[in-house]
């Protein structure tokens, strides 16, 4: 029998919250529709095409008109596209096209909704982890997580890595232009490694990740990009990746996922050249929880609950920093590992970039 005791409530506030929840319902359902639109090329077919009827879009994408008509109505109701009632045609505005159809746009978003799809598929595993306290490793998630993560992070790295983040690391860029050795730890599908290799053809790169499936895909991507002669991808953990004397070690959005981030930091300290730099790219976060209660923090706390915290708890130590650890806590870990100079080198609305030197 329920022990809930009714409490006095404000009817206006209740209505406001219910309507907020209705908005959440629409957003949750639309996540699946975004994945469908991405997979079937519906957004790409509408980009730059002007007003289109459901029949025209269905013919262009070789899909069923009745499904497309309902999909279009849902997109229009959510403000993702516009609808002109007199002509019964739909348009994808150029701003939405940048976010939904242009793969090379710095604000391309569909990859994230494939991450959402993986989270929904893996909800049962995370629910069980709540009751047992055990972790769920990155490799235990649905396969669409891996490609979704790469597609989501790639635009941000393309926009900032070569033009802003590396130039902010003191003399590091000059070394890379000359002849440097670089380790990209936790490289996933290798996008960040390949971007650096393309920008700095005189340097050599090794990307490592504990997930064998990701490394296999990274190797194929390097061949396709024409940099396989200067890029190696190897299966290794952050605490024992091979090599030493690196002028640059990079961690992209992965330190907080590690079970023993201090142990990983100590290994970086051991493998860096005496004047080398460690670049740590992490999700943007303020040090206090109350300062992260905003749309970006909301996304990161949710992703951290479903992905980052379980990943860390599945490993030894299981510190579970979470995706909103903040610069202050990260600095303490780096300093405990022996790094005496740690500073924020760059930032975007979605990332902070720390530079650590021995």
Tell me what the structure shows.
The structure is a single chain. By secondary structure, the chain is α/β, with parallel strands linked by helices. It folds into two domains: 11-102, Orthogonal Bundle (Arc Repressor Mutant, subunit A), CATH 1.10.10.10; 112-357, Vaccinia Virus protein VP39 (Rossmann fold). It has 14 helices and nine strands. It has helices at residues 11-40, 42-46, 54-61, 65-77, 94-100, 110-121, 123-132, 144-165, 172-178, 191-199, 212-225, 261-271, 295-313, 327-336, and strands spanning 82-84, 89-91, 181-185, 204-209, 231-235, 246-252, 272-283, 341-347, 351-357. A seven-stranded mixed sheet has the order 5-4-3-6-7-9-8, with helices on both faces. Strands 1-2 form a two-stranded antiparallel ribbon. Helix 10 links the parallel strand 3 and strand 4 (204-209). The longest helix is centred in the first third of the chain and has 30 residues, at 11-40. The radius of gyration is 23 Å and the shape is globular. The termini are far apart. The model has no long low-confidence stretch (mean pLDDT 97).
**CATH architecture label name of the largest domain:** 3-Layer(aba) Sandwich
Poorly predicted runs of 5 or more residues: none
Fourth CATH level, the homologous superfamily of the largest domain: Vaccinia Virus protein VP39
The CATH class designation of the largest domain is Alpha Beta
Number of helices: 14
Q: Give the ordered list of helices and strands.
A: HHHHEEHHHHHEHEHEEHEHHEE
How large a portion of the residues is in β-strands, by DSSP E? 15-25%
* Quaternary organization: single chain
**End-to-end Cα distance:** 61 Å
Largest sheet: 7 strands, mixed
Calculate the mean pLDDT score and round it. 97
At CATH level 3, the topology of the largest domain is Rossmann fold
What best-fitting shape do the alpha-carbon axes yield? globular
Number of structural domains: 2
């Amino acid at each position: 029998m329920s022990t809930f005791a009714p409490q006095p409530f404000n009817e206006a506030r209740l209505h406001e919250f219910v309507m907020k929840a209705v908005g959440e319902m629409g957003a949750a359902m639309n996540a699946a529709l975004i994945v469908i639109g991405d997979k079937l090329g519906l957004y790409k077919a509408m980009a730059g095409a002007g007003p289109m009827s459901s029949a025209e879009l269905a013919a262009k994408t070789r899909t069923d008109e009745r499904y497309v008509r309902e999909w279009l109505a849902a997109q229009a109701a959510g403000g993702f596209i516009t609808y002109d009632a007199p002509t019964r045609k739909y348009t994808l505005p150029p701003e939405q096209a940048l976010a939904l159809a242009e793969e090379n746009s710095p604000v391309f978003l569909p990859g994230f909704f494939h991450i959402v799809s993986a989270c929904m598929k893996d909800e049962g595993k995370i629910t069980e982890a709540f009751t047992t306290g055990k972790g769920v490793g990155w490799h235990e998630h649905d396969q669409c997580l891996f490609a979704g993560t790469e597609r989501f992070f790639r635009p941000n790295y393309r926009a900032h890595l070569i033009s802003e983040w590396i130039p902010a690391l003191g003399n590091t860029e000059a070394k890379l232009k000359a002849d440097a050795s670089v380790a990209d730890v936790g490289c996933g599908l290798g996008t960040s490694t390949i971007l650096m290799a393309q920008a700095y053809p005189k340097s050599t790169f090794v990307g490592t990740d504990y997930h064998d499936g990701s490394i296999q895909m990274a190797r194929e991507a390097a061949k396709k990009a024409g940099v396989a002669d200067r890029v190696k991808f190897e299966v290794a953990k952050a605490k024992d990746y091979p090599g030493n004397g690196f002028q640059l070690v990079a961690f992209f959005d992965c330190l907080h996922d590690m079970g023993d981030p201090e142990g990983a930091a100590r290994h970086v300290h051991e493998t860096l050249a005496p004047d080398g730099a460690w670049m740590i790219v992490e999700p943007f976060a303020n040090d206090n929880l109350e300062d992260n209660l905003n749309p970006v923090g909301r996304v990161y706390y949710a992703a951290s609950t479903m992905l980052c915290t379980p990943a860390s708890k599945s490993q030894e130590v299981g510190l579970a920093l979470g995706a909103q650890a903040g610069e202050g806590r990260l600095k303490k870990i780096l300093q405990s590992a022996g790094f005496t100079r740690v500073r924020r080198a760059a930032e975007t609305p979605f990332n902070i970039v720390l530079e650590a030197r021995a």
